[in-house]
Amino acid sequence: MVLVQLQEGKEKTDGGLLLSRGAVQQSTTSGKIVAVGAGEWMSNGKPMDLNIEVGDMVRFRYGDEVELDIGDEKFSAVKVSNCIAKWREA
């Protein structure tokens, strides 16, 4: 499991039009990893190579997480196997 600090979604278009919450159909979510757990086990009983670190950005399918509100911040706990993309911000 990883703890992901969520990025805010787009609230307006590139042209400046404001979007309602219902106008944006969310299929994936992204954010920055702030903590990495001990790891996961594959179906063959061997540990999964995490290849993921604190500070990485990840994208995962909306609904594949446990949402957490800590203070004013929004976080999600996500299985590493549910992360569909990973990158580093410059």
- Weakly predicted, low-confidence segments: none
How large a portion of the residues is in β-strands, by DSSP E? 35-45%
Order of helices and strands: EEEEEE
> How many strands appear in the DSSP assignment?
6
Structural Rg: 15 Å
Largest sheet: 6 strands, antiparallel
Helix content: under 10%
The neighbouring-strand order within the major sheet is 4-5-1-2-3-6
Short key terms for the protein model shown above:
six-stranded antiparallel sheet, mainly beta, 40% strand, 90 residues
Layout of helices and strands:
Layout: E1 2-6, E2 28-36, E3 57-61, E4 65-70, E5 73-78, E6 83-87
Antiparallel strand pairs: 1-2, 1-5, 2-3, 3-6, 4-5
Walk me through what this model shows:
This protein is an all-beta fold. The chain is built from no helices and 6 strands. The chain has strands at residues 2-6, 28-36, 57-61, 65-70, 73-78, 83-87. Strands 4-5-1-2-3-6 form a 6-stranded antiparallel β-sheet, with no helix packed on it. The model has no long low-confidence stretch (mean pLDDT 82).
Offer a quick outline of the entry.
This protein has 90 residues and is mainly β. Helices cover 0% and strands 40% of the residues.
